[in-house]
Sequence to fold (266 residues):
Amino acid sequence: MTARKLNPAATAAHERLFPGHVSTLAVTDPELIEYFDNFAFDEVLRHTGGIDERTRLTMQLAAMIAVGAVAEYRVMLGAALTVGVTPVQAKEVVYQAVPYVGMARVFDFLHATNDVLTGRGVQLPLEGQSTTSPGTRMEQGLAVQKQIVGGEAVDAMYANAPADEQHIQQFLSSNCFGDHYTRTGLDVPTRELITFALLAALGGAEAQVKGHVAANLNVGNTRGTLIAVLTGLLPFIGYPRTLNALAAVDAVTPADDAPTAKEDHA
Fold:
């Protein structure tokens, strides 16, 4: 058996993110943990320079909610708090996930977040971040939806929806955008990046991933930022979902050096 060990960069990352943590899997499954950690906490991180550490961990938290990884989420939430993600920011990631993966999935993560925060001495509930009321959520939500998605695109969604589906469009404006994107605690570009991470990790939502690539560009996030996010997610969501999301990025914002199909002269 070839001896393996964590390389210095992966070891340093572990000590920074998980101070004092002793992995039981390092004892029971040393080969897997050694090459996974060298990959996820060194090799991958060399290609995530487009985002800072707090942003990377924030996006990883969102992805873990989408894939239903409660145990790993608890560990990574501790790491995120250790490097400066605030309790409000952490809680807002969970709230932002609700319209995209559903409360049925988010429920356990909300309780896990509360457990981790109270275990660190944080008093709940946190200060409220809502900026809308029942009377203003539709108007304010529609405004931020048009800012993110584009006014013409939103108008077309309403115009093209059948009469018996108009209420879904109204829900998108008032609930998805009005109840969530208007909150403080995280700015709109960060929320839109979280949405991209959620949808990429969720799988089966390629059309929505593509739409939110465009939305991210609308609010100032770049192709480089999106690729850095996906690079950081890859060890935790796997190659198929990562490659599907990369295809959506390439479809909306191709790289300058992307190969082009050769003209067929046959």
Notes: The domain at 16-122+183-252 is CATH 1.20.1290.10 (AhpD-like). Residues 178 and 247 are 30 Å apart (CA to CA). The chain has a mean pLDDT of 94.
